[in-house]
Structure formats: C-alpha cells, structure tokens
Amino acid sequence: MLTRKQHELLRFIQERLKETGVPPSFDEMKEALDLKSKSGIHRLITALEERGFIRRLPNRARALEIIRQPEQSAGPSTARGKFSPSVIEGSLGRARPQPVDDDTVMPVAVPLMGRIAAGVPREAIEQRMSTVSVPPEMISRGEHYALEVRGDSMIEAGILEGDLALIRKGDTAETGDIVVALIDDEEATLKRLRKRGTSIALEAANPAYETRVLGPDRVRIQGKLVGLIRRY
Fold first, then answer.
1. CB neighbours (10 Å) of residue 59?
2. Which of 93 and 190 is assigned the larger pLDDT?
3. Rounded-to-integer distance, Cα 147 and Cα 113, Å
4. Does residue 208 surpass a pLDDT of 60?
5. E strands in 77-217
6. What confidence tens digit (pLDDT) does each residue in 95-110 have?
C-alpha cells in the first residue's frame, strides 16, 4: 500500500521514463510534488524501494528502474491465495491505509492473528483478532503477522507477556533465531531455535523453563520474530 505522495512520485517517474528514457532529477521530483525539500523525496524513494516498486541501479547517477507498475499496487493477487498459519485463526488480509495529502509515511496494518505461548506450549487458537498498526520501517520484504505474547519464558530476551510479536512468515530459520514453532501440528510456542545435529532445540530465555529437544519431523517453523510492540 502506498501513500498518496508515494503513488504520485511513482507515476511521475514512470511518465518521465516513458517520455525521455531518463529518470527525473530530485529537483524535478521535488517541484512536481510541490515539496519544500529534497529530504522528502529521499524518504519517498526509500519507501518505494523497500516496498518493491522501484530499484536504484548502482554506480549510475539518477538511475531508477520501475519494477512494479502503480496500477499493480491495489492489492495482492487473489491467485496467490492467503497464508494461514496452522495454529492461528484469522485472515491475513491487510487493511488499506487511507491516502493522505502530504508525504507523511503511513503505518502498515498487519494482521493480528491470535495469541502465542511464551511458556509451556499450548494450543494457539484462542481468539479471532483484527489488525495492528506497525511503523513501516519495521516491515521488510515478505508477509508479516502479529501475535500477542502469553507467558514469561522469553523474559530474558526482552519479550514480556502482553507484547505484540511481529513475525515474518517463513518455514526456515537459523540457529539463534527466535521463531514461532509448531510442535506435532498441535502446539505453538515462541522460542529461540538451536540446531543440535539432526535435532531441534527450542530454548527458553528464562531459567525456570527447560529446553525442549525434538526431532525435525516434530517441529515446523511458522515464522521468525522481527520486532516487538509494547503497550504501556
């Protein structure tokens, strides 16, 4: 999803490339969007690049390439289907932020899929929830969802009960990553993953909890922790 200014800039770059084959300068972009400084253009360019609409070509001045057309930004393709974690009930449809009249960077609406145990693993399907607003700088490439943390097993990693864990969807992880792990297709937990030979260890960050060592056939990764949101 793009803000109004991001969409306008993408259109302007596209039209200039069609007309001249050369991207517009930052001064031309600033004038076209009626901005007071080029710093606003830098922010818009960075946001478009992070969202996969443009690419800056290295070692070339004013080198921008359009990767996705503006008309493709209306929403995800229905042909791709929706990701639905095995242990979490809800929809991954993203709420579309309303356009704004300036270059303010809008928060991203991320699906709040339910609760995750940071303690003794338990069934994670508890409640259908809605969305949570996340600063765009916390979002990287790929699909994301949020989970409300229950339990204190990750307290020494700075993860407290009631925190919202921002998860990037994926089925692989490296040793040391904090992951959403599905155990025996029944229980979900938030733990640090350690690979021990052919086994997988799910390690708590609280000495009151034991590390569980399981066979690889018993554990499926549902995503990696990429950020936390805490309410006071």
1. 5
2. 190
3. 6
4. yes
5. 108-117, 131-134, 144-150, 164-169, 178-183, 187-196, 199-203, 212-214
6. 444 444 444 556 788 8
Is 153 among the residues known to form the active site?
yes
- pTM of the complete model beyond 0.85: no
Counting residues of the chain whose pLDDT is more than 90, the rounded percentage is 28
Q: Which of 86, 130, 140, 153 is catalytic?
A: 153
Side-by-side strand order, sheet with 164-169: 131-134, 108-117, 144-150, 164-169, 219-229, 178-183, 187-196, 199-203, 212-214
Active-site residue, selected from the candidate residues 5, 30, 191, 224: 191
Alpha-carbon gap, residue 171 to 178, rounded angstroms: 13
Burial of 108 (C-beta count, 10 Å sphere; 0-12/13-18/19+):
buried
pLDDT above 60: residue 203? yes
Distances (CA, A) of 128 to 72, 142, 174, 229: 30, 22, 30, 19
Q: Which two tokens stand for residue 91?
A: 């929809």
Residue at 195: amino acid letter: K
Q: Any idea which residue has 């229905």 for tokens?
A: 78
Residue pLDDT, tens place only, 128-178? 467 888 888 888 888 888 899 988 999 999 999 999 999 999 999 999 999
Distance (Å, rounded) from C-alpha 225 to C-alpha 14?
Answer: 36
- Count the Cβ atoms, other than its own, within 10 Å of residue 25: 14
C-alpha angle 121-127-133 in degrees, rounded to nearest 5: 100
Catalytic annotation present for 37: no
